[in-house]
Amino acid sequence: GLLISYLSPCYVSTALPELLEVIAELAVETPRLLVMGDFNLPSAGETSGVAREFMASMTAMDLTQLISGPTHTGGSTLDLVFVSGQWQSDLELGELVVEP
């Protein structure tokens, strides 16, 4: 399964809980899940409770974040790619190069 998301910076804090509900439903129904998109978490503050809760929720759903560096010219990581544990074990991932 594939879910692609864009969260507008002005709605990140209010939209994340609903998005997490959708992802949770998909994670249960779809053992091989890829979630990717521009989540604009820096707009909530990368160390904010909202951002930490989002990342913890994704981890709790067995979704691993693959992007480890900045995806924006300002040095922030806006774009994220998550894969489910089952799919990750089936995939051979080469080096993922992201250039802002």
TrEMBL record:
Superkingdom in the source lineage: Eukaryota
Molecular-function GO term, any one: catalytic activity
Positions of the Endonuclease/exonuclease/phosphatase domain: 16-87
Pfam family, one: Exo_endo_phos
Database matches in Gene3D superfamilies: Endonuclease/exonuclease/phosphatase (3.60.10.10)
Name of the protein in its database record: Endonuclease/exonuclease/phosphatase domain-containing protein
Native source species: Micrurus lemniscatus lemniscatus
